[in-house]
Every structure is written in C-alpha cells, then in structure tokens.
Fold this protein.
Amino acid sequence: MYDFDLVIPTSVDEASTAMKADGAQALGGGQTLLPTMKQRLAAPETLVKLSGLSELVGVNAASGTLSIGGATTHGQVADEASAYPALAALAGNIGDPAVRNRGTIGGSIANNDPAACYPAGVLGSGATVVTNTREISADDYFVDLFETALEEGEIVTGVNFPIPDAANYQKFDQPASRFALVGVFVAKFGDTVRVAVTGASNGGVFRWSEAEAALNANFSADALEGLAVDAGDLISDLHGSAEYRAHLVGVLTRRAVQACS
Amino acid sequence: MPDGGIGAPTKRREDTRFLTGRGKYTDDFTPQNTSYCAFARSQVANGKINSVDMSAAAEMPGVLATFTGEDFVEVGGNPAGWAIVSRDGEPMKEPKRPVLAHGKVRHVGDAYAAVVAETLEQALDAVEAIEADIEELDAVIDMASAVAGSGSLVHDEIETNTCFDWGWIEDNRAATDEAIKAAPHVTTLELVNNRLVPNALEPRASIGEYDPGTGDYKLTTTSQNPHLSRLLIAAFVLGIPENKLTVLAPDVGGGFGSKIYHYSEEALVLAAAKKLGRPVKWTATRTESFLADAHGRDHVTKIELATEKDGTFIAFRTETMANVGAYLSNFATVTPTFLHGTLMAGNYTVPNVYVNVKAVFTNTAPVDAYRGAGRPEATYSLERVIDKCARELGMDPVEIRRKNFIKKDQYPYASAAGLEYDSGDYDALMDGLEKTADLAGFEARRAESAKNGKLRGLGINAYIEACGIAPSNLVGILGARVGLYDAATVRVNPTGNISVMVGAHSHGQGHETAFPQIVADMLGVDALSVDIVHGDTSKIPFGMGTYGSRSLAVCGSAVFRATEKIIVKATAIAAHMLEDKPENIEFNDGVFSIKGTNKNVGFGDVALKAYIPHDYPIEELEPGLEETAFYDPANFTYPSGAYASEVEVDPETGKVTICSMVALDDFGVVVNPMIVTGQVQGGLAQGIGQALLENSVYDKNGQLLSGSLMDYAMPRADDLPNLVVDHSHATRCTHNPIGSKGCGEAGAIGSPPTIVNAVVDALVRGGHDVDHIDMPVSPSRVWAAMNK
C-alpha cells in the first residue's frame, strides 16, 4: 500500500469540501478499495472517510419509500429493511459477515462492480440515488462497467427505494468470489414490472426489457416462455460462457417471478 | 496401558496454542535489526532478459542491497530429487534452476531481482524502480503443442520441452498392447486431472540470519522438511556447510506438499543476510503464493481398460502428459512417475498394466507433489474408467469392482504395476460401505430428489495408495537421490519426563499429541509427560520431513525403535538396582520387576538413577538415558478404502450439491482416532475442492487467470456435506512395528472420482448422454454437458 492522507470529516459538508482536493477518493466500507490499495493497484492521495458520518447511516421506511443512508452497512440493511424484505435479503447475502459489517450501499453503487448485488436491487426497484448535489434516477445512474453518473467529488448520501407490491432477488454465486455469476432482481409495482440483471453483461447491470414487457402483460413464469437475453453482449470467463449466463438469466428470472407469487 | 496410549482419542494438545492465537509462525519472528526483502517477478511467461538495471532501485530510500541473476551465476541450482530415465535409456533433461532468473524468465512470477531495505514498503517501492528490459517471447502453455516441439522452448539449452518419456513397466508394454488388442471389450476415457494451487493458509515466509562472530547461518522458514532444505542449500545451492547452517521450521500453517521443497527465496535471504550482516525477512503475499508456489496435479490422460465380457479386468494402459512447469521442483519428477505409475493396478488382480508418462516443461509455475501426489491422479483415472466400463457392460459399479478385487487371502500380493501389497481387505471395506452409506436405500432417495426436480446420482469407488515413503534400497534403484528413512531421539530426563526429537515436521498432523502416545504406551507413563521437539535441525538427529502420509509409519517407527532401546537400557539399570540380571527383569506398565517376585522399581526411579549414578557399575553401564534410532521401512504401506457419495444436480442450472460423503479407510493400527478422523475430513474437503471447485488456469500467453481467491474457488464449509468417516475396517501393516499405514492423503485421493462418478450417474439416470465431465464439475460444465 502506498502512503495516503486520511480525512475524517464530521459532516457531509466537510466531506464535500475534502473531496474537492486533487486525488481525493471517497472511502465507504473499503471492501473493494482497501484490498486494491494493498495490492498497489490503486494509489489515491487522499481518502475521505464517509463511514463514520451519522447523517449518512440509517434505514427508514415512510409512505411507501425505503430510504437508506449512503454509509449504511449491508448488515444493517439486512437487519432493518423489513419494510422491503427482498432488499433486506439481497443485502444479507452479500459477501460474508465481515464484508457485510463494513461494506456500505453507497460504496457498492459508487463502485458499480458488474457482478455486485446492489446495482440489481437499485435498478430493479427504480430507486433514486441521492448525492450531496442532486438526485439521480437509477435508470440514469448506472452507465457502464465500474462507471456511474457520479461527477468528480460527488458523494452518494443515500438511496430512496419505492417499495414494490412484490419483489425477489435470485443470485447464482460465482463459485470463488461469491459475487453474482448472474443475479436477477424482479419488482412489481401495480401493473409495472422491472427486471434488472447483474453479473452477466459486459456493460454492467441492465434491465431486461423483453421480460418486463411480457411480465407487464402476464405476471407469471409462463409469460417468460421462449424469451432469452442475447448472449452476444454477455460475459464469458472461467466460470461460465455467455450462453450459460444467458440461460441463467432466464432461469433466475423465472424463479424470481415464482418467488413473488 | 495408561490413559492416552495407542488408540486413545485424546484431544490435540497443540490446539490450545493454535486456537488461542499463541502459535508462532515464521512471520511472527522479527529478530533485532531485521531488514525486509521484496522480489521483482516476471510479468511475462517467457521472456529474454536483455538487461536489469538496479541503479535507480539502489538509490531509493532505505535500500540496503539489490540482487539480480548475475549475482548467483557462480552458485549452484536447486536440483530435482529424483532422476528418471526415459524409455530409450536417456536420462531426463534437467536444466538449471537458479536462485534468480538469469538470461530468461520462464513463468509469470519468476523472480529475476530482489531488493532488501529497512522496511517492506521501501523494498516494494524500490522493486518498482527497477528498470528491466525483458523481451516477451511466445509462451509454451499447451502440453501437446509443447511436446510437438513446433513453437518456443522453455529451456533453449535442452532443445526440447519434454523432460522425459517414461514407461512403466517397459517390459510389460508389448504384453499389455497384445492383451488390449485381443480383448473382447475395451473402454477408453480421456480426462484431465485439473491443476491446483495448494493455498496453505499461511503463505511462505523465510528469515535469513548470519552471525559474523561464529560464521553460523540460520534460516527460519515455512518448511515441511527442514533437513531437506538444509541439505539442498548446503550441498547444491549455496555451499554453506551443514554444521554452519541451522534450519528452523516453527509452527507452519499448512503445507499440503507445497512446503516440502527448497525454494529460491530461502537461498536469497541467507545470501543477503551474509552480505548485510543483518537478518533479512521475506513473507509472500497471497498473489506470490499463486504465482510462485509449486502447483499440483495437471495431467492430461488417456486410459484404456480391457475386460472380458463378464467384467474381468485384462489390462490397464495409460498415456499421460504431466506438466512440470518451468523448472523441476524437488519432487516434480517422482510424482507423475513412481508415485503414479506404480499404483495403476489399483485394488485389482489385473494381469497387465502399462503406463507411459511424458513430463512436459511449460511456461507456468513449477508443478510438484500436492496432497496425494501422483496417487490421486492414478486413482481418478482408474476409478473413472472402471465406472465407464461398468456402464458399458451393464454391470453394477460395486459388482465390477468386487469381481476384480484382490482377496484377503492373496496377501502379500505382487501387483502388475510392480508393488507388493502387504495387507488389506477390500471386500470388507465394500461390505462396510454398502451398509454405512445405505446403498440399498439409494433408489428411494433418488425418487425423493426427483419429486423436488433434482437429478440424484450415486458414486462409489475404491482406492489404494502407497504411503510410508519409502524403503531407501528400493527408491535408490528407482532413481531417488536421497534415502527416505526417518530418525528419532528419545531423551528421558532425570526427573522421568521425556523429550522426543523427531525428524517429521508437524504442521496440522497432530504429531505433538500422537507421537507421545506411542512412547507413553510403551513405557507405561502419562502421555502428557512426553513432549516432541521438531522443526529444528540443530536439535534433531536427522529427518526427511512430513509428506506422503509417512510421518507415523516411518518417523513413528523410529520413535518406536528408539523407545525399545530405552527399555533395554532401563532394564539393565533396573537389574542393577534390584541386584539381579537383566534377563530376569520384566517390564510392564512402567514397572520393572524380578520375574516371579514382588521386588520392583518404577520407571521414574530408573530414570533418576541413570543420571545420578553414584553406585553404578561404571564399567558395564553408561550414565544417561537417551537413545536414537533411524528407521528405514522395508516396504511402502498400502492404505486403502471404499468411498460413496450421493449428489443432486439442479437440471436447470447444472449446480451440484453433495448430499452425502462416506469414507471407509483401512489405515492399519490407528494411534489417535480423533486425529485420524480430522485428517480424513481435511483430505475430503480438498478432494471435494478439486472435484467441484478448484482450477488453476493459464491463458495462452501464460497469464494466470485464476490468480486470486476471487477466481480460484477454495472449498468452504457450506460446500461440504456431513462427512462420515470410518476407519474401523483395519488390517495391520505387516512390516512396521506400529502396524500403521498412514492417513494424511487418503481423503484427497479417494474422493474426486467418487464425486465425478456420482455426477455422471445423476446425469445418465436423468436421461442425458454423458460419459464424462472434467473436474471441476462446475455448474457451467455440468450445464454444458447436459446441453451439448
């Protein structure tokens, strides 16, 4: 690990100011950033620690919306997001207890790992990402592999999830990392269904619009019969071919729909 | 027998320190004034070193010394421990393995320079400042292309990538070919034994020290085999006299074979310590472990089984390409040959066996012995092809094995692959397996799984291994460059407690508990009054280390022999104390008595007398009570077993769930059943890891794709079923004094074919036309097999 300066702000305002410095990097739970730095693969000059900021921590449900502070750990979401059980279950199955006790929702979606679970939950729910400067809809937020709509220095302060009528997340583990080899989040709001897929695409998390259209018309696993995502844009690696991932997207979507009913 | 003797399931005494964080591993030692070493490792698999400019690195803050391959041109290389002769009579090709790469780098992770600095971070910074001009060449990765010889060479000077082309037994080749040609049925199977990264929890680490006042060197290192490291450093690499070099292997956090060998980093920290007059420490990162530890397995094999129509075996013929990586690690040449080919008759009365092994250099990390070492490769090939054959002949997999088992009245049995099995009872193991694994109830469980939409399969197999490595006279004929005896000194202290210095190193095997049980049993003392000393060449007479399930069978036998000598001498002392002749003294439960009388003296009083010999007949009796024995086994030992597993396959995703794993093993006499059960459980976890999860993959350019735990899947607790372990079906080893056969590798040898047999069985029963899936049987591979 290279030397770096550590800034421990006491408020989001202080953090925002600190993030304006050259080479400043926000530090959430550090579950990706710190191992990367230990391997000398990242060398931020300054880390701005967000995880101690109490105004960024918390899980609150009110009038159909679940609001989670950006520095809330996966463990806390798993324990406290009972208003949105599918999301609580997703959080409770990220990594292992050590990861869940440190890793944060803001850190996860700011990093936007193509195999992370939270991007599927955020996009699948049509949530709103709140930053220190604005609000960004999930559909605009996830841009590409490890790329988001966040500007330089922008901090994820929270995520607001509309609570669906029914939702389910199906994760198929990559055997080594236990990130999602494929993960599918299905959420149903009245007559509108959203299906978000993580782990599978070279472009990161995406919505499976054909499945959404079919499920809007008929919310049942049968409605997915004959539908398949195009394997052309999917990841092929040691753990599975693009064709296998495409197949899993179908299987997991069906299972998620079945689990909703 | 006192409590805690042979057969007692006492808790492991060493666990108190391990479980309370008081173990002391190499990296826990930081001698005063320690400096830190870091290595520059090749980023390319095959490269010509045009220049390595260390001048900028040497100017970096805190840098004390820098080294390149140039600095070690005059010293020796790290040798292979076993000379193999090819079928044409030519000796194997044995290119030099230098301390630091010189001229060429030969695998990603090959160290070509090193820096020693005041702090580790300074050393790492300086490594980044090294200016190396390394010209990338085409990498040699695929073994078949490497052997074909059309592309690059790993070692230009030997003009081939084939290390040797070995036949076993060459004289049986023609007869085997004939038998297969004439056979009514031949089953052929091509398979890959997947390459594994050992991944001990503790990465390798070494500390070199040099005392300018005495000229003594000390190496503290993560070794299963400290005397071997001392011998190789002394005789081959650095030329330090053995009497000036102490090698210390303190607590070691797992080895699984990867820490048997001498590695270049050990030589480097010693050379650097001499140069600087300061201790020099190096601790591998996990990344370095992946890139530069010896890997395991990596065979590509074609096996044929010829049978009569009724399933009677006629011949096994095997062709294997074995990857040895870029350099020959110490046991790399014996692992795919004598630890593999000699087992290719398995548990069976097959009359013809022939094995051809081509060892292949590639631009990958060295490959060497890993838990089982050659024997898992043999067992996997045999037990997979037998399963395929049974299916082709419409026979039950248990029945075809029973039909060909060596029967219990046939021992000693000379196998067609050149070994003489001393004891065993494979039918008894299979009887036990049928009962313990409830094979009769499988169909009902399969139907239940089917109701839940799952395909259930049953895998069974037998195995035999050759352990207790090894009789020196035999291995000498076969090309070993060392003897494979072991040694122990039993020192009875004046107050009657006992220190036993043993050549075997304990790094998870529980020697600190089990070895005292032997001494306690023989001397009738409390096992807790006996301690072993291991891992320090300055304290131990000699040793050949811990590997090949040899510690108890070989070093334990040395402990037994030394304890026998103690009893002989103590009897003479007791006779003196009781004023009678030694032949009139008997020794039972720690008490010496004159036969037929109640005149007696206890072991403790005899020990005290040995050291306070005020009234000794000094012409007849030496003071002291300490004896040393070297034990060289008369034969290998032959543990065997019968394993069963049931799996469920999710037909939609290909995911395999192991429902049950039952292991019945014959280890001969068991000293500590609890430790043995733990050893088998650990072996099963590693075998299941190989079968389901682990795979070390290089791309065509020689980059290690599975180079971290993010991509290399180690087995975790929730990957494992409840492991049923039973070692009650024991037949005694006939040629060592304890009667033990060894248990350390069994689980890793026996279980991979069990799992794959079960998965293939599930798919076939599910209506899929599948006869083999290579390990690891990952979800994606199973799905592909179902949807080909």
Q: What stands out?
A: Chain A has three domains: 5-49, 57-162, 166-260.
